[in-house]
Specification:
This protein is α+β, with helices and mostly antiparallel strands. It has helices at about 20-25, 45-50, 60-65, 70-85, 100-110, 115-120, 170-195, 205-210, 280-285, 340-345; strands at about 60, 90, 130-135, 150-155, 215-220, 235, 240-245, 255-260, 260-265, 270-275, 295, 305-310, 315-320, 335. It has an 8-stranded mixed sheet. Helix 5 crosses helix 7 (about 170-195). The longest helix is centred in the middle third of the chain and has 26 residues, at about 170-195. It is globular.
Length: about 375
């Protein structure tokens, strides 16, 4: 998903879309046809379970920030390997109070457990990615994700739509404000270390990005009677620079594409999952790549995730940095305006890394 941007007019309004939680209440064993994936898209759950022993890298932020020179350098090398070979890593000792993480999870759960008529007070309008509802739905026959979502713009203030910030639960707004401020500081810190891992000056990305755009998406995946037929979230890469994910400990749902295999990301208590977005891939000319990921469902357990997208200001012009372009590594992406890319992203169906075709030089539309 991309941070919030104004939509172009190409998104059309589709018919009524059922609420997944309500579907489960009314028809607990039935899967509507619009949720049943084509055979090739269906998750092979046995393969995922077989790969549970493979774990994505875990980075200790305290070693990066406060370790001795040797320890910090070792952790920086580990971060570089995680970004270059995985595009995903989990971060521990990140400095965000576990009590705040718990409060954020609690108010999010409370929101999703409200009656439908209460949640529908914050509707996601067609052609936008803010509010409660379905995003990235463009046609009447498009397959839907087994997920309910609430998405909100956070920073800068002009992207916010205050009417869509829930007043129920009562502590929702103040908790999200505090949580988002902490995630913003963490994102800036991570960008410093990612820049250092690339041999750049620490503030390179933070200075480039201007007043960074920040948005949050809360996902609730109810149990599904046939998890082998559906997806909680379609495969995609993120249009952000960095994405910060808090996932509940209840069940494994996030999977990343490594080679040709979908690997599960096992939750670690109080850890946050970080992934590289399309923006960093472009800036590093493909050295650090964004990675496709998806969510699967569980037959007996629900799952909650809170996702923050952190990206450059919409006014920023982006393209590969000169440090990563040479005869051996020719320029792979054109220069473009980030706001233009964000609008393109929300007008594109979630489908692997399709959105990034927008920036590739080999795309004949822009060559």
């Amino acid at each position: 998903m991309s941070p919030v941007a104004s939509s172009a007019h190409s998104i059309v309004k589709v018919g009524h879309l059922d609420d997944v939680q309500e579907l489960r209440k009314c028809r607990p064993t039935a899967i509507p046809e619009r949720y049943v994936r084509e055979t090739a898209e269906r998750p092979t759950l046995t393969l995922a379970e077989a790969s549970l022993s493979i774990q994505i890298p875990v980075i200790d932020l305290s070693k990066l920030a406060h370790g001795g020179q040797y320890q910090s350098q070792k952790e920086l090398e580990k971060l570089s390997g995680a970004c270059e070979n995985w595009g995903f890593f989990q971060i521990v000792n990140h400095g965000i109070d576990s009590a705040l993480l718990e409060r954020m999870q609690r108010v999010t759960e409370e929101f999703f457990m409200l009656p439908l008529e209460e949640k529908e007070k914050y509707p996601m309008a067609p052609g936008t990615v803010q509010g409660y509802g379905h995003a990235f739905v463009f046609t009447e026959d498009q397959k839907l994700d087994w997920c309910n979502m609430l998405a909100l713009g956070v920073e800068p203030s002009f992207i916010r739509n205050p009417k869509l910030w829930p007043t129920n639960p009562p502590k929702f707004r103040e908790t999200l404000e505090s949580y988002s401020a902490n995630i913003r500081k963490l994102s800036q810190t991570l960008l410093r270390f990612i820049a250092m891992s690339l041999g750049l000056k620490p503030e390179k990305f933070n200075e480039m990005f201007g007043t960074a755009v920040q948005a949050v998406r809360m996902n609730y995946y109810p149990p599904c009677p046939r998890p082998d037929l559906v997806l909680g979230l379609s495969p995609h890469s993120d249009g952000s620079a960095l994405t910060v994910l808090q996932q509940s400990m209840g069940s494994v749902g996030l999977q990343i594409l490594k080679g040709n295999t979908w690997l599960p990301v096992l939750p670690i208590c109080n850890a946050l999952v970080i992934n590289i977005g399309d923006t960093i891939e472009v800036l590093t000319n493909g050295r650090y790549k964004s990675v496709e990921h998806r969510a699967v469902t569980n037959k007996d357990k629900d799952r909650l995730s809170i996702v923050t997208f952190y990206a450059p200001s919409y006014e920023i012009e982006l393209g590969p940095l000169t440090e990563f372009v040479n005869k051996k590594h020719p320029c792979m992406y054109r220069r473009y305006n980030h706001g233009e890319y964000s609008r393109h992203y929300i007008n594109t169906k979630l489908e692997g890394k399709r959105s990034l075709e927008f920036a590739k030089i080999q795309n004949k539309s822009f060559s």
